């Protein structure tokens, strides 16, 4: 049993025993599959760092020589120790090492940090040159970054430093990689009965029984100590002349990482270099799967009967933990970094609806990663892949199941049946979404987000701070998404009517001659007024404008009149001009049809031909021959498709930017001469999708030609 003894006593004993033929090895327990681990003391055990001792190496630690050794508290004396053999347990033990024998090993009479303690030490480049000393050439050394799992090079001064100091990358990796993520493995039999350790087979034939995160992040800090009173952290001991440094520990009461002053020696493994490393490691123990929510201050989000979690999480032991669906449907995020090493893990694939293997590394982040196929299947077996609606979220029953719709199973009021690519689901209608009241949501996550909502009273999209969870569907990533979904343009082809500066009202007109050449006299949407609205040609003649930065940037398309083609550009989120379309298809459909009236398109006899020149051939039924605004030597045929939602004698109004039929309230007057007619929900959605798809295919073929 380890205990502290009087220095003078064991110094004398060490002199007597110093010439013993054996020297303790420095290997952590490693065993063949399914065998109990034990402490190895022979000189011939792998890895090669175990063969560091003997002969001239006596009196040094395995890394950074004597600079790694423990010093007695507030002195310049190296702490010493004595190794002895336990007859009862038949393995070696030692006494000494000040108050911290649990994180030190006794090697040739001196106290050297265990491998677990060595590999979590921060980078220390060594002592600075004293004033008057010449500048020495620094040495190439390596240290292990426990947060990233990498061995990194640094320049060593040649003096001082700590034990996390290796002569080569190979030595560093052999010493620190492929072991417990933090702390030292247990070296006793029947370790599976110890709840503070978790035994797992490492690689193919090696088992390690490592401290659990709960044990490491407790006041014990992952070490077995016999003390009646414990502080929430261990400050360690201060070597004479040294200074304390700030480190972080996990407070099990507040479930939060807090700073403390570490004295540089001893202590335990509840000791992190920064708050992020502490929070990432210790918060993983709070939930059965995934990571708990965090507030804007990076603290764990607490919950109670009066402070509820968002609907993506559930309250577990006063902490908001992710529901299985939240964890399993979370996409993994790839970071721009060099992976130190890869391991095979398992993730739930929403595309395949099953658990798939994935090569994981520190560069792949996210909770949707599991150690085994069995664990992945256990957590994700009940997960239902969520359909992606064009707007908002699909309707769910009270037990959280997505409602499937059909002609026999219509959707609830304010929802419409939409094919989402995998299933028919009930998605919120555009009108229902845009008329929802503004909601900032509930706080979750480390920060808020800039989002946009539609104010139906002002017919305007406004920016707001989204708290991260819940809220409603009136919530858009960019201003353009909000505008295209909800905002009612006064003019059917987009843009705003000319305004009289004296009264702020749109200028009335009776014919095109009452307007400038860039505008046409057009009846406004939602009113019976006629005003001067921008012509399609004028809209499509603007140069591309990236706008100004706000919210999330996006890819848009503009029409180039010289080449008569649509080109992509980066839109920053706000301002700009109307020559900006959500897709290449919408851009072509709108601008190639600039000769036509609102909601009309030019006629093409086939997908591969130019628009029909009706000065040479007559237009088909329901199309009218007009002069082309892009080429005055040609005439084109203009007409209106019904998109499968109107009768053969009618056509719907089309939103200019998306070139899709506008939705409206059944039986309501959309314009002075337009009426919204309601048809079967499922049939309407299927017909509209089919009609729109025919038009999309037509223009996609046109893209290849143009």
UniProtKB/TrEMBL annotation:
Family annotation (SUPFAM superfamilies): BPTI-like (SSF57362)
Gene3D superfamilies: Pancreatic trypsin inhibitor Kunitz domain
InterPro entries, per the entry: Cuticle_assoc_divergent, Cys_repeat_1, Kunitz_BPTI, Kunitz_BPTI_sf, Lustrin_cystein, Prtase_inh_Kunz-CS
Residues of the BPTI/Kunitz inhibitor domain: 119-176, 229-282, 328-380, 434-486, 540-591
Top-level lineage group: Eukaryota
Molecular function per GO: serine-type endopeptidase inhibitor activity
Signal peptide: 1-27
Pfam families (UniProt xref): Kunitz_BPTI, Lustrin_cystein
PROSITE patterns in the cross-refs: BPTI_KUNITZ_1, BPTI_KUNITZ_2
Keywords: Signal
Protein name per UniProt: BPTI/Kunitz inhibitor domain-containing protein
Species per Swiss-Prot/TrEMBL record: Caenorhabditis japonica
């Amino acid at each position: 049993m380890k205990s502290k003894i009087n220095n003078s006593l064991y110094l004398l004993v060490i002199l007597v025993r110093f010439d013993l033929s054996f020297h303790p090895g420095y290997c952590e327990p490693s065993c063949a599959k399914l065998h109990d681990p034990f402490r190895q003391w022979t000189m011939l055990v792998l890895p090669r760092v175990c063969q560091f001792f003997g002969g001239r190496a006596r009196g040094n630690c395995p890394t950074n020589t004597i600079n790694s050794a423990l010093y007695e508290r507030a002195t310049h004396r190296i702490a010493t120790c004595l190794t002895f053999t336990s007859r009862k347990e038949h393995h070696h033990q030692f006494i000494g090492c000040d108050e911290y024998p649990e994180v030190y090993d006794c090697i040739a009479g001196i106290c050297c940090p265990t491998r677990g303690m060595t590999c979590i030490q921060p980078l220390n480049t060594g002592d600075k040159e004293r004033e008057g000393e010449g500048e020495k050439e620094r040495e190439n050394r390596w240290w292990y970054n426990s947060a990233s799992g990498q061995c990194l090079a640094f320049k060593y001064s040649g003096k001082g430093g700590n034990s996390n100091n290796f002569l080569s990358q190979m030595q560093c990796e052999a010493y620190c990689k492929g072991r417990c993520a933090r702390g030292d493995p247990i070296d006793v039999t029947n370790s599976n009965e110890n709840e503070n350790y978790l035994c797992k087979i490492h690689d193919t034939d090696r088992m390690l029984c490592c401290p659990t995160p709960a044990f490491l992040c407790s006041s014990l800090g992952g070490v077995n100590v016999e003390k009646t009173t414990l502080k929430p952290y261990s400050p360690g001991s201060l070597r004479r002349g040294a200074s304390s440094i700030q480190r972080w520990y996990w407070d099990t009461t507040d479930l939060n990482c807090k700073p403390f002053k570490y004295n540089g020696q001893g202590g335990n493994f509840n000791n992190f270099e920064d708050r992020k490393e502490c929070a990432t490691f210790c918060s993983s123990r709070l939930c059965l799967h995934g990571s708990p929510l965090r507030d804007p201050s990076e603290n764990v989000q607490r919950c109670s009967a009066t402070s509820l979690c968002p609907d993506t999480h559930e309250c577990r032991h006063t902490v908001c933990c992710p529901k299985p669906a939240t964890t399993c449907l979370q996409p993994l995020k790839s970071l721009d970094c060099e992976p130190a090493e890869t391991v095979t893990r398992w993730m739930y694939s929403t595309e395949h609806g099953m658990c798939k293997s994935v090569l994981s590394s520190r560069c792949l982040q996210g909770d949707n990663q599991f150690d085994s196929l069995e664990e992945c299947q256990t957590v994700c077996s009940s997960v239902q892949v969520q359909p992606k609606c064009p707007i908002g979220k699909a309707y769910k029953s009270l037990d959280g199941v997505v409602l499937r719709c059909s002609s026999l199973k219509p959707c609830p009021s304010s929802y419409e049946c939409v094919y989402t690519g995998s299933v028919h689901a009930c998605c919120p209608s555009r009108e229902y979404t845009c008329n929802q009241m503004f909601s900032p949501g509930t706080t979750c996550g480390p920060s808020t987000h800039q989002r946009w909502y539609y104010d139906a009273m002002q017919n305007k999209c406004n920016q707001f701070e989204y708290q991260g969870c819940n809220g409603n569907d009136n919530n858009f990533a960019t201003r353009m998404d909000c505008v295209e979904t909800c905002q009612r343009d006064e003019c059917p082809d987009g843009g705003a009517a000319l305004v009289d500066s004296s009264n702020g009202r749109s200028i009335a007109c009776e014919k095109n001659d009452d307007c400038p050449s860039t505008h046409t006299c057009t009846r406004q949407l939602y009113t019976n007024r006629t005003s001067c609205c921008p012509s399609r040609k004028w809209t499509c003649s603007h140069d591309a404008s990236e706008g100004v930065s706000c919210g999330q940037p996006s890819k848009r398309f503009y029409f180039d009149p010289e080449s008569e083609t649509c080109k992509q550009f980066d839109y920053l989120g706000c301002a700009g001009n109307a020559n900006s379309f959500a897709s290449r298809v919408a851009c072509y459909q709108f601008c190639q049809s600039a000769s036509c009236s609102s909601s009309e398109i030019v006629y093409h006899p086939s997908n591969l031909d130019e628009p029909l020149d009706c000065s040479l051939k007559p237009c088909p039924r329901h199309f009218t021959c007009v002069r082309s605004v892009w080429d005055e030597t040609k005439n084109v045929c203009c007409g209106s498709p019904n998109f499968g939602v109107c009768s053969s004698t009618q056509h719907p109004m089309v939103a200019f930017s998306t070139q899709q039929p506008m939705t409206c309230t059944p039986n309501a007057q959309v314009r002075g001469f337009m009426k919204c007619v309601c048809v079967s929900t499922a049939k309407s959605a299927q017909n509209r999708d089919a009609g729109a798809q025919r038009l999309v295919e037509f223009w996609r073929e046109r893209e290849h030609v143009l």
